[in-house]
Specification:
The complex is a heteropentamer of chains A (about 525), B (about 500), C (about 170), D (about 650) and E (about 100). Helices cover about 75% and strands about 0% of the residues of chain C. Chain C has helices at about 1-20, 25-45, 50-75, 80-85, 90-110, 125-135, 140-160. By secondary structure, chain D is mainly α. Chain D contains 26 helices and 2 strands. Chain D has a two-stranded antiparallel ribbon. The longest helix of chain D has about 50 residues, at about 570-620. Chain E contains 3 helices and no strands. The chains are: A mainly alpha (about 525), B mainly alpha (about 500), C mainly alpha (about 170), D mainly alpha (about 650), E mainly alpha (about 100). The interface of D and E includes residues 620 and 623 of D.
Chain lengths: ~525, ~500, ~170, ~650, ~100
Amino acid sequence: MQMNVPMLSILTFLPLGTFVLLLLTPQGSSKLHRNLSLCVSLFVFLISCVILKDFIPTSIPQFAERFPLIDKWGISYSVSVDGISIFLVMLVTFLTPIVVLCSYKYITKNTREYYGLILLLEFGMIGTLVAADAMLFYVFWEIMLVPMFFIIGMWGGERRVYATIKFVLFTLVGSLLLLIGLIYTAWKASKGGHISFAISDMHNVVLSTKEQLWLFGAFSLAFAIKVPMFPLHTWLPDAHTEAPTGGSVILAGVLLKMGVYGFLRFVFPILPTASHLFAPVMIILSIIGIIYGALVAFVQTDIKKLVAYSSVSHLGYVMLGLFVFSLQGFQGGMYQMINHGLSTGALFLIVGMLYERRHTRLMSEFGGLAKTVPLLAIVFMVSMLSSVGLPGLNGFIGEFLILLATFAASPLYAAFAASGVILGAVYLFHLYQKVMFGPITKQENEKLPDLSFREAIIMIPILLLMVIMGLFPNPILKRTEPSMQKIIQQVNLSTMQTRDFSAALQQDQGSINHDR
Amino acid sequence: MTADVALLLPVIIPALGAIIIFLLSAFFPSRAFALFITVAAVILGAVFTHGWNNSYTLFSGMLHIDSFAQISALFCFAISGIAAIAAPSYFKRMNLDFGEEYYALLLAATAGMVIMVAANDLMVLFINLELVSITTYIMCGMNRNSQKSTESALKYFVTGAASAAFMLFGIALVFGSTGSTDLTVIAAQIHSGNSGFSTPLFPLALLLIAIGFFFKLGLFPFHAWLPDVYEGAPTPTTGFMAAAIRTVVGIVLIRLIVDLFEPGMPSLTAIVWWISVISMTIGNLGAIRQNNVKRMLGYSSIAHAGYLLIGFVALSSTRLLGAEAILYYLISYSLMSLGIFIFVGQVEQKGESDLQFDSYRGLGLRQPFVGLLASILLLSLTGIPPFAGFWGKFSLFSAALHDGYTGLAVIGALNSVLSAYYYFRLMVNMYMKTPDARETNSSYVRAPLVTTGMAICSVLMIWLGIGPVSIGNFLPSVNSLWVSIGNGVSVLLH
Amino acid sequence: MTVLFFSLFAGIAVIASLCMLTRRTALGAAISLVVCFLAFAGLYAMLSAPFVAVMQVVVYAGAIMMLIIFVIMTVDTEEEILQKERGTMIGGILATIIMIVGICVYELALHTAYLKPQDASLNGTIANIGSLLFTRHVLNFEMLSLLLLVALVGALVLTKQQKKKTEAR
Amino acid sequence: MDRQSIEQLLWVIPFAPLIGALAIGLLCALSPKRGSFPSRTVVGFLACLGPLASFMVAGGVFLALGKSPETTPVHQTLFSWIQCGAFSINFAFEADRLTAVMLMFVTFVGTIIHFYSIGYMGHDKGYARFFSYLNLFLSAMLILVLGSNLVLMFLGWEGVGLCSYLLIAFWFDDEAKAIAGKKAFIVNRIGDFGFVLGIFLIYTTLLKNGPSSLEFSFLATHAYLLAPVATIASLLLFTGAMGKSAQIPLYVWLPDAMAGPTPVSALIHAATMVTAGVFMVARMHFLFDLSPLSGQLVAGVGIATALVAALIGFGQNDIKKVLAYSTVSQLGYMFVAVGAGAYSAGIFHVFTHAFFKACLFLGAGSVIHALHEEQDIRKMGGLLKKLPITGTTFLIAWLAICGIPPFAGFFSKDEILWSVFNTWGAYGKILWVLGLFGAGCTAFYMSRLVFITFFGKNRSSTAFEKIHESPPIMTIPLIILALGSVLVGFFGIPEALGGSNVFASWLTPVFGEHTSATHSNFIEYVVMALSVSVAFIGITIAYIKYVRKPFIASEPRGIAAFAEAAFHVDALYRIVLINPLFSFTRNILFRVVDVAIIDGAVNGIAKLSSVSGGLVRRLQTGTVRTYLYYFGAGAALLMLIVYIGKW
Amino acid sequence: MESSAYIGLAITIFFIGVFGMLVRKSAFLFLMSIELMLNSANLAWVTFAKVHGNLDGHVYAFFIMALAAAEACVGLAIIVLFYRKRRSVILDNAKEMSK
């Protein structure tokens, strides 16, 4: 069904190659650095578009490549895409040129390193998503950490060192336990004494409930830190606040999703029983995250911190959607991930634009900007509405599906989660009012340049996507559905639940009748 | 006999090289020539290990030359070679004479190491271990201008001599129990169960030997010398010690565990478990609080020794997974620690070495290439994939998990997080802090040879980690590396 | 007879070594040690190891100890203050523990009947040992010679006074 | 036009204004020098084009539905919107007779107000932006009305909310206005919270009995399945309606919404958007029918709102605020009607209210325009002479809202009161009495407004001579709307008065026969007479108070002050809900939980490691003999372990 | 004579050496303690050689003497070096590096 060209490898390694190439260029020529990285990232995006075009909506992994790497440990270089990863890959390739473009003015020092690291990060992210081997996944997973560490630490704000070390240590605690968990599972999945890290083999592993619970602890710690779920979120505001705009965009846009992706790829298929046992805890944590993130976002004075906490809230929805184990929830979660990547990414970009203009991120320093920068105000408005989940924009689809699925599972949970809809409006409209509306109180704000051509080029594709995805979600939903069905099957196998919540409810009904 | 000589060439060449340099230094002192001889001897020696493909027994069983010895010897040569090319810059800066003797000592130690990895006799082991140790005592004290260097030599000598005495007494007791020092004979005796194996003195004797090795690895509670000695010794020496001695002792310990400890002293596993846990924790906690980079690396190598022991916990004569993991880990660890030590030393100026973290401020940006190499090494030390350091830890954890030591693996993993703090701290200083004005005097000294050494280490970190294909004979693909490690270790199975 | 000699030598060895332990001056300790080593030589002779016994006298009691004494006298060291030293609690406690362990080991060594009866045929003459040295143990022998060379040069390297001037070699 | 072609053209109704909005927006955004291009004429033309087109197609729909013998709705599916497993939502429009009524008056009033705005906003800097928003609003409103399923309706629902926000905060450089906009959106969101949950409940309940859908047609036929959850579901939906239609306790946003330009108040916050709640309840009538309890609650909330708002209206001095509270009050009546199951009465009131309230607002706008943005009625007076057209139309609308026959308000309000009277026995009677009282109040405060504004002496700061009537572009819409206020009532002449109640029978296919008319005509006459006389009483009192005695602006005292402060409801909300929540968040959640506990734990672990690191360093004394102690102790310990462990 | 007596003596002397190593501060005394320990090991070697009739023990005893010589040589050199720096041979004075 596919060509012989190793599309995914090209997609993955092109950024790495450019990273190396960039390192060979002289330090001063920042124009070369950014144009080169822009071209490459655009080209990567094109490749990913080709992949998307040829993607067939089934649950079968596609564009698969396999090359044994370490036979001894059953590790191979094995990549493929399926419905879970394809759109996250697209998100990565879509956001990277934007991140490159948005850094043109902001990054003036060490451009070679900066753009190189962005591309390295892209390499890591794509690799994580396309890896079909658990160890390969892990390798890429950790590779993502390094450029982010440097990006925050080298181009960040005042407390960048604290933030980046916190980010690294937080992430490492989780990921090293993940490593242990993966190895353990791989041994369990071994056939005839030969350990195997192929994810497909891992999916067939049989684990006792006790093992599952422990492994769930290890896996979900790693992924929940990355997501981040409620009590493990404190690295995020710091990292976001200190990171440069591009870093924040990637962090919020893609890196956080890796946690969710991990749940989809590993936790649910491998540990179905434990997932079900832990579901109430995870759901409650997600709901706390939704409400807590929103409330705490409201009291922030730093715009970027506000947006950062809003991520906690949004990702709470995603996790909530996953842990109700129904197709709608999974699909909604998936969709919400992409939405969050776009809307929060856009918000961070806007915060960055404001920062470039005023060199502050304190809400009190702004006010009345809609008058001086009307176009920016429009862009901000649309991004905010997308984030709030206004119907017609992308955010709605995800939230709606998630809440619907949650309601089907438990109306009470849904009621609590839906209160986040109100709170989301509260903090974002509060932000918008403080920044864009009201009289101009600071003299500096009276003569700010409006959206430049470059900035418009950055924002327009995002805004268009928000609208398109809000009105035509089906092209995406259709492609992710088979894979989601498959996970649902895997996760619900142990508890004899069926995949679609409709069917699940019917079965409930049936059993009630039967009892009677 | 000629065949024997040919087989012994990897030992003879460095030994001869050492003697030649000794002689030359007395009459025609030339550092460059000494370096040349050293490198040549190392390369030649490495080339001649090619003959070690098959198994041979030499000197009535005292040496077992086999593929295990081959792969180990190759790395001994690699380490010595890199340690050698890193030295000139240091000696020049420190304004020291006797540079030639350094190379000679290095070669003598190499010869000793090569014998050790092939040794199948406790006394051969001991004598050569002493050769290596005494050589390093001297190398530690070579920076005579430095108070610290002298102190380091003194401390190393004092503790080292004590450990040697313990070990020797242990070997004597083993000899008493079994009537032989030949490992094969001892193992056979233990397995036949008719000899001193059943005597209660035997485990104690083994313990005394083990203590000697634990000391050399720097494991708790025999670790205390390590930070001081590492800090005080001339940095190339520190690198050599951290890399070479650790590797050789570890490799020898594999043999000993398989032939001696595992059958003769089953309770050792539990002890090793605890020592491993405490060592990594103490090493990491100690390193967190250091402001001196060299000392930090010293503590961190205590922690690394702790990781290494994970492999020993998961090692026995029937399950060689641990052995493979240890071998790989040693190879990777020795290269990266050597690389990082020679990097660290390049900031040193004449006089007392005081390598504060602050001294590295902004270095990564001023010296981008060196910075990149150092970052690779640091990431590898932390255990960030895809570098070899990660795969070392991975294989250790994997071996431990295979044998059911989940707790140990988890503790190891959590300890890695601690270690990330101080390794990343160095990168933080290199990239994220601007240098103070007063720090100008301690800037990095460019030295092509040092950079080459670092580059070799870094490239190997990548290639031994994920190299998909073999390039020539000396850059194996990761798959073939594991195959040869597997083959090497399988020799140990009886 | 053997018991008498053994008791004599062993007694001397133990007393001499204890003497070494308690001498205030390093020189005194060194002299005690020489006595101890000589007693050892006697024991070796009793164990039909004439070569070792001779070597003990020549190398150990002679060369090594002479070297140590020579250096002690060169360095002209200040004397250790034993009073203070005895006060070190840790040392005392540790030493006690170690003695207990030692007694355990001792007990083990004495009360286990693992030792085979002695082999009377053994004769450690210089000829026998010499032939072993150059056949079976030639490797160790050679390495030891290398070691001695290293030690020699090392001692030289360490103790030679640094030249004041920078050498441009 | 035949039915098929109308079905094909249904999409034009919402999309024509949308296209207008986008076109204006893009023109405005892309113009190199903002403000100069596009010219106001072009913008005005573009802005009116969309609503006009919608109105025409809506007329076509209306005719098609009227003509056709079959009463099945006109339906057009554009595309499948959300398709996820069994859950499927189409982007489809559907118009039945209820929709047609809504479409007609929304597009009609909308178009008129667009024309009016050309005049009213003529000198505003945000001219183009205003029309863009207004068009967008119309589009959203039409989607709300036309959507064939609950989710699409929700899209329109939120869309109008957004536009309402944008338009309230139109003059955003006034912080109070910006805050008012935000408040409107957030309060609406609280309602939406219930709405969404209601949708979920309906969907999942239906799901238990087989395939489920949120299409209205499907819901109508499967409503019986919803019986077990009808009360909860209907109340959840009603929560949404409470937000949108400003019912207690969520009405607080509407008075503040008057911060927006007056045409906005007329269109959004009087005629169309705020009645969306009523429309939704009517649309979901089959659900409300299933639960008498929720019907009673709805009516109860409605009457309470009607009364409270009317009482607050007594004390208001801002011309628009008075109208706003009257809107809240009238909306209460509408909910009384739909709560009582008299859906057609409710919708009829929505219909008539749209005309007279729009007329009132536009009239008020005209006054404000003439007085240069003066809104305080205490600074007006005697304006009838200066603003004859505005004044006359205002008076007509006033009579309509007071319920004086034969103006439109009379018929619709009377129908509501009559149907309440007929329902639920005692409860209905109580509601009726209260409603009657409310009607009296309405008459009073509206008359107060009219008398103070248009009669008596001028108290304005503007020189009386300089006050001019508004231009024709503003007055013609007023006249049209005033005509409407007079005429539209005749669609619903009750049978007791010899009419045939065209309106009710038009809606019969939607709501079914209203079967509660069991009383004799006589009682109906009495009821009618009572309501008319109550209205007259109200007007008379106001006349005595404000015309006979000359009006003197004074500091209000007692109840008047209380009413002027809108019963301090906002303050109450702030003190009881908002402030505690946010101070809890700031002081407990953020400072304690986030910073102190969670981050404290994280930093604590780091600190702990550091402290233990210090301990490890303490072990390292630096003297080699200590190391030897460690060595010896370690060796001894290990030997002991081995010794004890073995034997 | 029982060989265990010799072994007992060897162990006694060994632990006297350990004791000396721990309690004496002088570097010379340390060196001598080490020599004592090596000697006790030698005694063990020779005894065991006798027990097993294996002459290797003698050879090794000889080797150990050589080794001890080398060690003493280097050790003394280090002590002298240290003495030059510190004018002391007390081990406790070597505390430049700590913590």
